[in-house]
Known about the structure:
By secondary structure, the chain is α/β, with parallel strands linked by helices. It has helices at residues 2-8, 38-48, 59-90, 98-110, 113-126, 130-139, 146-157, 161-170, 179-186, 203-216, 231-245, 249-259, 274-282, 286-291, 293-298, 307-316, 319-324, 329-341, 355-367, 402-414, 456-466, 476-483, 506-517, 553-562, and strands spanning 24-26, 32-35, 173-174, 177-178, 379-384, 420-425, 445-447, 490-495, 522-527, 533-534, 543-547.
Amino acid sequence: MAQYLKQTRSTRTPQGESILGENQVENSAGGYVYQVDCWTRMERFLVLGSEGGSYYTTEPKLTRENAENVLKCIKEDGVKTVAKIVEISNAGRAPRQSPGLYALALAADFGDEATKHAAYLAVPLVCRTGSTLMEWVQYTGETWPMGKRKAIARWFRGWRPRDLAYQVVKYRERNGWSNWDLLRSAHPWPRDGKAEPGVQGTSLQMTYNGLIMGWVAGKVPLEEGEYTWHPEVRDFLRAYEQLQKTTDPDGAAALIRAHRLPREAVPTRLLQSAEVWAALLDDMPVLATVRNLATLTRRGVLTPFTGANIEKIEKRLESENLRKARVHPLQILGALLTYKSGEGVRGSGVWEPVPKVVDALDKAFYDAFGAVEPTGKRVLIGIDGSGSMEHGEVAGIPGLSPRLGAVALALVTANVESSYQIVGYTCEGRTQPGPGTETPTTKGVKPVAITPRMRLDAAMAEFAKVVVPESTDCALPVIYATERNYPIDLFVNLTDNETWAGPVHPSQALREHRKKFNVRSKLVVCAMEATEFSICDQEDRDQMDVVGFDLNVPSVIGEFARG
């Protein structure tokens, strides 16, 4: 009898076996973990996407699994699904819009009538540029139901005239669709200058927007006569037409400055000119500035001696401007990784990085999270150093592996907390999943000397010094603290959740830590990939899953730690 109890009711269960009586599933690596609900997984997908796949799962398979999960959410509560898509998009929580656009298209195509209605109404809220509208249309089916046509009509009619003119010039064609394709398919021209019910805007605005749509279709000229144009809109579109014909860089720069024309309006032949790029920089939007730093450097607009232009970059990357432009920290991080490398991801050009620009991007990464209040708790941050963390891309950012993303998030914490330690961990000596009989060892846990305001490349170098990629045991940070008599208030585990190698489950190790120190230790698991797995016990209110690089992560963790 004692043997039966020992084998089935042990407080330490190898990760290659499920804990008796708990709802665990086998993960992609062969270990047993908890399964998050469909809503948590959808949230991971909306923030992280599935580009690059993972070490254990290919991109197509991971994408299909997430699509099926979104459909499950739609079936369970389609209107709630649409509301979550809009919430994450409007709050700027995701670094890329593509997952949300795809999920919104699924809601429009596969939802019930109430879901379809909610999805079509959400199109102008989620598709905030012509580019995202065309991407959404690409994701939808080939049919053109009335709801879809009305959604596109609302999008075109809902802009102020000058802003609509900017959109149709900046985003003329994307994802196999053009503005003319959308207009021809949706027929959004207003009739008699009357606004559609529920669409903001005066009748006069609707008339002006109708003229812009007619200009896109090639049916309405800019000359005065039969039509009365809004002067600012007419001048903007005339400047665009004139820019297409000019071959003089100085003349082109003058048009760009006078009418605030975007880079996409400039013919390719003029984009070799430093003067043209200098003119574009004067009024370039924040995100466009981030994306074009390498080109601005190659063209000589940014050098160590162009102080005025560097000041423009520094000003544009200030926290308030980042917030207004909904620039996500990952977008900054992706730009930082590319810019300081001095070469394009696809071999498209080389440049000599300007140190002050690198510093501005580094600072902007932290600023993009906003003001984060310290928890005042004892915090131990564990970074999964296993081999699987080196594969795949976080949110489709080239060069941003889950490991690099985890180190970057640890840096954010180091800049906020006063009582913390960061450790990297791997399970040394295990190469195959299985029950295992060995006792817990923290030989593979190493403190990482990451300090506040340390640059990301320096932090990665410190991590590489102490952690050798091997197998995964996500219980190790908790065991490490227990062995060293560190009573920890909050464990933060940055992982892909593919744990399998340990002799005790993370949730069991956490219970032992609480019992030894009589503390209500909490565990936050920061998922670095959009899988269905978690090491968090879903029944424990002091364990929480969050999505890696959700913009709200630092503040949510802080609120959770403070109770």
